[in-house]
Design brief:
about 300 residues; mainly alpha; 14 helices; about 75% helix
């Protein structure tokens, strides 16, 4: 049996398959996209890093040096600015209040959020989906719309302007995100491990705290860092709900210091106060950066 071969006329080029055409155009398109992406990311990095670096350098300069040459390096490294900001400006008291409020709120929201996410993901009971979607709806509700009713509720309960009231507000603010984030981690854990623990005689609480919770370590670490960053930088809730000046957190303290600059010009202490506020966030992120990037893995499909 003979096979006939058709040849294209001389001077004409046979069309290449579409996949081969895409391959020939791919490398050039990838290079252009990479260059554009690197330029955009470089500009964005400069917009974020330069103000931070300028703030840190300004915290070591004198007020005269800040006003006369704001973009120059410090002629003398004045560490007294930090001492003055910590003691005279009251940053030490604000820092302690923030550590107390954020620390207690973080422990409560992680404990309650982990337990709630575990029950919603591992147990079947009437109204489970309603509770889950109600919590997810809390993520979409604007915070500034909730502060007014929250103000009157806390006023009627006589907890406005107290540590306890601010901690409860922080917990309510961070709980929906915590449940949403941890739901997927508990959802993907093998059911056989919980069954094996039950066969060995472990109850529900022991199975959760000793078996399932340690297995969700990457997810717990990631959501803890996210919650810490969000609660540490929280501004609207303490401004509205925390009216006692002795219980001010760092956000309120910095606002007061900035307002006082119109009457006394101590910009050096002001920049030192901002640097003190930023340092804990940077330290936490640098220490737990690997857990933060490695813990965001599972999807949220139910």
């Amino acid at each position: 049996m003979s096979v006939s071969h058709t040849t294209a006329p001389a001077g004409t080029e046979q069309p290449r398959p579409p996949t081969q055409q895409r391959r020939s155009r791919g490398p050039a398109g990838d290079r252009i996209f990479t260059v554009v992406a690197q330029i955009v990311l470089g500009i964005w990095s400069l917009l974020v890093i330069l103000p931070l670096v300028w703030t840190v350098f300004s915290s070591f300069k004198s007020t005269k040096g800040i006003l006369s040459s704001p973009f120059a390096l410090p002629e003398e490294w004045n560490f007294d600015n930090f001492v003055r900001a910590w003691s005279q400006a009251g940053i030490g008291r604000f820092f302690g209040n923030t550590v107390l409020v954020v620390g207690c709120a973080l422990i409560l929201v992680m404990l309650l959020g982990a337990m709630c996410a575990y029950v919603l993901s591992r147990y079947t009971f009437p109204g489970r989906r309603i509770i889950y979607y109600a919590l997810i709806a809390g993520l979409t509700f604007p915070l500034f719309l909730a502060v007014v009713p929250l103000f009157f509720i806390m006023e009627s309960m006589h907890i406005r302007g107290t540590y306890f009231g601010l901690i409860m507000a922080y917990v309510g603010f961070a709980l929906p995100f915590t449940v949403f984030f941890l739901y997927a981690f508990f959802r993907q854990l093998p059911e056989e491990i919980a069954e094996a623990a039950a066969i060995d005689g472990a109850g529900d609480f022991r199975t959760f705290f000793q078996v399932m919770l340690p297995m969700s370590g990457p997810g717990m670490a990631s959501v803890t860092i996210f919650n810490f960053l969000g609660l540490w930088n929280q501004f609207l809730l303490p401004i509205v709900l925390n009216t006692d000046s002795d219980k001010f957190v760092l956000a309120q303290g910095l606002v007061n210091l900035q307002a006082q600059q119109g009457y006394r010009s101590d910009w050096a202490a002001m920049f030192a106060s901002v640097t003190i506020t930023i340092l804990p966030v940077l330290i936490v992120y640098m220490i737990f950066q690997r857990q933060l990037s490695g813990g965001i893995g599972p999807s949220t499909n139910k």
